[in-house]
Write a structure and sequence with these properties.
Elements: H1 8-19, H2 24-31, H3 35-47, H4 52-57, H5 60-67
Length: 71
C-alpha cells in the first residue's frame, strides 16, 4: 500500500541497522521494506539533530510525530 506509514518497530530496526553501518539495500532486505521507503526515513533521520541514544529513548508517539508528520 502506498503512503502507509511503517510501524515504529520497523523504523527502529532501520535506524539501528544504519547505525551498524549497513547500506540501503541491506537494510531494505533485513527489514523487508522497499528501498525507497528506507531512503525516505533515512533522509528524515539525517535531517534530525538526534543522536542514536536519544532516538532509542523516544516513545513510539514521539517517533511518529518526528518521522510521520514531516511536511
Amino acid at each position: 500500500m502506498s503512503n502507509t506509514p511503517i510501524t515504529m518497530n520497523r523504523l527502529r530496526m532501520i535506524i539501528r541497522l544504519r547505525q551498524q553501518g549497513l547500506g540501503i539495500k541491506s537494510i531494505s532486505r533485513f527489514s523487508r521494506t522497499s528501498r525507497n521507503t528506507v531512503k525516505k526515513y533515512l533522509k528524515t533521520w539525517d535531517s534530525l539533530s538526534l543522536d542514536y541514544e536519544d532516538f532509542c529513548r523516544k516513545s513510539d508517539q514521539e517517533l511518529y510525530s518526528l518521522f510521520m508528520e514531516v511536511p
